[in-house]
Amino acid sequence: MAKQINHAAGKDIKIKVSSDKMEAFLVTSAGTTLEPQEVFQALREAGIVYGVDIDGIHRFCEEIFVAGHFLVATGLPSVPGGKAVVTYLFNKPELKPETTEDGRVDYYNLGGIVQVKAGEILALRQPATKGTPGYNVFGEVLNPLPGKQVAFQITKGAKVVGDQVIADFDGALTWQGPKIGVTKLQVIKSDIDFSIGNIKFPGKVLINGWVKDGFIIEAEDDIEIRGGIEDATVISRSGSVFIHQGVAGRGHALVKAALNVEARYIQEATVEAENNIVVNEYVIRSNIKAGRSFLLQGIRGRILGQNQIFAGSQIKVNTIQGNKDMNMVVEGIDRKKMYQQYRTLDDLIVKEEDQARELAVKIRLLARDKNPDARVNITQILPYYSSMLEKIEHYRDEKDQIMQCLRSTKGDGMIEVKSKIDDTAAMRIKDQVVELSSDMKNITMYYDTNERRIVVIKN
């Protein structure tokens, strides 16, 4: 837009304003001379009241202008508001290797149950800011875009109070994907013996002592044992089992988990996990079955005596003593089938998310409805909605596990041994016997899909 003011002295002063109203220009012809007050008057008549460059105009008027556009006023842009920031005060324990001070890798990283009290703060939110208003050259206010609000990611047992998430009751933290919640927790401060008896619990179980001979611990979620396990049975139906001191069985100890088992050592026991089994020090005279990986790579980690070790995708061990008495088998994976499972899970997630969005809209509409029946309908829908969200997170976890397995496994199955291994060792990958031409050290054996054979390489 442009505005022209004609002065009695015969001078033409043109003021042009940018399309966004954030800049005003003085337009002159060659040889024009102006007084500052003439320019200020022209700006006032054009409605330019903000961001006028007074010093600049005085400088302009001291010279004979050449033809051109001269910036004489500038607006102030608005500053958008800052996005809300959510800080979770607890991190989900992860099963991953740690690097020791001397640079070696130690796979012994016990997960753990995180206890919380009712009302304890689990997460904090720094609210979004409104931003700072700006002004164009006409003095009109430019309202800023407010910062985006961020919702907390929570599940059962956690509740939002203002800009905090707090535990709804005494218990243990639980995670469903990125969502944090609280589940029931039973804490035993002593050994599991005749003074306590067997335990069957719908949440998590934390035992500060040992599980003595003959006793049974069953939990729906994680089990953490700060002591160890003797000839006893410990089963987690949907979680993991963490054993700080290890399993000291005498042939009848049984440990089973839907996810992972982690222990300092395993002796004369049967240990099964649908995902991974991680041991730090040693395995002796035991039956090990891991759905995905068996890792015995602690600095002192070694296999002793006669053991049966089975894994779905990979076995990694540091030291083997007594190779002739050891049997290691990797069932192997079908990459095409796993990729298909991954895509199927993607489709299921999209389907469930579409249905969840429809339910969310329905819940919001019912929440605005003042009819008493609406509240009844919400009460009936919410459990189904919550279970749908849990199912979505379960599918996402499965996807992550599949991708992790594909990335960490060489070929269609692998066995890695750091120490020396002799050519009589009994090892199989995908039903093929591993044949070593001589004793070898620090090697990886894997099934090559294209060549349809086991390849042995030195690390």
Q: Could you explain the architecture of this structure?
A:
The protein is about 20% helix and about 40% strand. The protein is elongated and about 105 Å long. Among the domains are: about 70 residues, no CATH class; about 100 residues, no CATH class; about 70 residues. β2 and β3 form a beta hairpin. The chain has a 22-stranded mixed beta sheet that branches. Strands 1-2-3-4 form a 4-stranded antiparallel beta sheet, with helices on one face. Strands 5-9-13-12 form a 4-stranded antiparallel beta sheet, with no helix packed on it. It contains 4 helices and 37 strands. By secondary structure, the protein is of the alpha/beta class.
Describe how the helices and strands are arranged:
Blueprint (H helix, E strand, L loop, with lengths): L1 E5 L5 E6 L5 E6 L7 H10 L8 H8 L6 E7 L10 E4 L9 E2 L5 E2 L8 E2 L4 E6 L7 E2 L5 E2 L15 E4 L2 E4 L3 E6 L2 E5 L1 E4 L10 E3 L2 E4 L8 E4 L3 E3 L7 E4 L4 E3 L3 E11 L3 E13 L2 E9 L2 E4 L2 E4 L5 E3 L2 E5 L2 E4 L1 E3 L4 E5 L4 H34 L3 H37 L5 E8 L4 E4 L2 E2 L6 E9 L4 E6 L1
